[in-house]
Amino acid sequence: MILRQIMRVVHPLRPVTLQKNILAGINGSDSYSTEIKDSVPQEEPTKKNISKAMKAYLERAKEHEDFMQKQREEFQIGKRHLANMMGEDPETFTQDDIDHAIEYLFPSGLYEKKARPLMKPPEEVFPQRKAAEFDESGRPYHFLFYTGKPNYYQVLHDISHHLIELNKFEDSMIRKKIQPDPNLALDLSGYQWIDKESLEEKLVETIGDKDYEYFINCFVRLTAVPYAYKIKDFIFEYTEPLLNQVQTYDAVKPHIDSDGKQFITVYECPRKAARGDVTIRFPGTGKITINNQGITYFEDVQSREQLLFPLIFTDMLNKVDIECNVSGGGPSGQAGALRWGIAWGLRSFVDQDIIEKMRIAGLLTKDYRTRERKKPGQWGARRKFTWKKR
Amino acid sequence: MFGITKIQFFNSNLKVLSTIIQQNGMSQYPNYYIKPIYKKDSQEELIKSGEIKKLSHLPTRAALADQTSSFSNDPLANLLINYCMREGNKILARNLVEQCFENIKRLQLEKYHKTTNEEDKHQIDLDPKSILHKAIENCKPILQLTPIKRGGVRYQVPVPITDKKAQFISMKWLIAAGQEKESTVRFNLQLARELIDAANNTGRVIKKKQDLHRQCEANRAYAHYRWS
């Protein structure tokens, strides 16, 4: 996007200005003269005054554009090669196909996804650059250029502008004795403000932590205005939707066993070092079997309570039978693993409302916290040795 | 399109990491995770007030190993167990606190059966958990003395404390009182006695609190050292 802007600025200038630069260099002494020349075009004196910054910028822009052009061509050739290798039509080979092909041809077991081989259009691989911010005479286009962060301050400027407008509107509505409609009120639940990195990407500027904080505070203040819904589009430009929890809802349909009972099995229930699997049978009488023992498999009360927590919470105690196998770790970890397994399996036997309640009760979240390792040169994971002078 | 989403995914991952490091102390959860609301009645309250809608988009932390929706679960009792615990031996700590509750019940029942007056009988609280709550509430100090150095002299300056801090001090005193005993008496029995005394606004811990308040009153002349 920004690149295209660069192009728009650079392209009309490049062939003309570079030539004229040379021309200006040649007959530079002439332009100071007071003689009136008919044949010389009117731009000529301004061309001579071209600032050093602009010159340097034009050179850099040209260099960058050449580089990008080369990269783009290479990408196109690479894409065609890849399509031929995969035996597909190069004309209809999409980015998705490229990703699949790369994954197939260069399988990588590296954990960090960034470190795996990739092939993307050069626009996505190389960082974007700002377009020219000043004209040939060195005069900036943007009125906030000298703040150093024109785009950032432009947003703040817009916020303040909107705030003034909304206050005016509110005053006029108060004069007319009209209350704001509560149904239209701006609802930002389910959204969060964009984080600093994405804001920087959006503005193509680097901003400090304090700037970001100020930005957020300004937006919070703007959204608190009763008629903020009028500038919904502007506000939603700087928000992103929160994580969607839908995947916790779609429970598997229970299978039917030989006795005609419904059952569901959850494999790989993790917690700390413990791993287990849980089978839930419905309808049942509340029989619990853990590694071929009853609930007395756990000697301490807390672990037994943990095992029963999802059953008590969903009122399914004595309505289902539970069989589990668990190994590894200690009693607390094993109980935690089975608690998650039971809660995850019970989703198939309860309705949506209760699943949401279970989610808020923290039953459907895998507890992935584990012990932090001890570090050498330290007493433990974080604690340092007692400091001794000598 | 696919590439862009992938890049965004990386960014969001980085963001999550940075939030862990910067804003959330040593927690392994990102800061936007909400704490679990594991009691059924507290969830009902949220549904009534309509605040549950706000939570519907936020991921929840997993419930901790000592949290259940069972009627016997009490957050304050859990806290007492954790404060009693030594070297992570939670089973022993829990046993001691549960035995203490049993002792409270026994002592109160004994008192209940010994009293002949009907009115006095109704005054006696037989629920160990409500006795614990009352005892902690009664032992909470409102002020604390902090040493502040002014002109080379350390002054004991009375400062107000938060509710959480007051609760911690109150529980610390109660546990310390339970440990201050003859060697023949068990901790759980002594703690039970102290809790009953504190719930009735008598006993050593209440005296300790009053002493502290008296000292704060005596040092009120130094109070301005808090800000000057």
From TrEMBL, chain A:
One of its GO terms (molecular function) is RNA binding. It is found in: Mitochondrion. The keyword DNA damage does not apply. Gene3D superfamilies: 3.30.230.10. It comes from the Eukaryota. Pfam families: Ribosomal_S9. The keyword Ribonucleoprotein applies. Its main location: mitochondrion. One of its GO terms (cellular component) is mitochondrial small ribosomal subunit. GO terms for biological process: translation. SUPFAM superfamilies: Ribosomal protein S5 domain 2-like (SSF54211). Keywords: Mitochondrion, Ribonucleoprotein, Ribosomal protein, Transit peptide. Belongs to the universal ribosomal protein uS9 family. This is Small ribosomal subunit protein uS9m. It comes from Psylliodes chrysocephalus.
Automatic annotation (TrEMBL), chain B:
The keyword Ribonucleoprotein applies. Keywords: Ribonucleoprotein, Ribosomal protein. Residues 61-220 form the Small ribosomal subunit protein uS7 domain. The keyword Transcription regulation does not apply. One of its GO terms (cellular component) is ribonucleoprotein complex. InterPro entries: Ribosomal_uS7, Ribosomal_uS7_dom, Ribosomal_uS7_dom_sf. GO terms for biological process: translation. It holds the Pfam family Ribosomal_S7. Belongs to the universal ribosomal protein uS7 family. This is Small ribosomal subunit protein uS7 domain-containing protein.
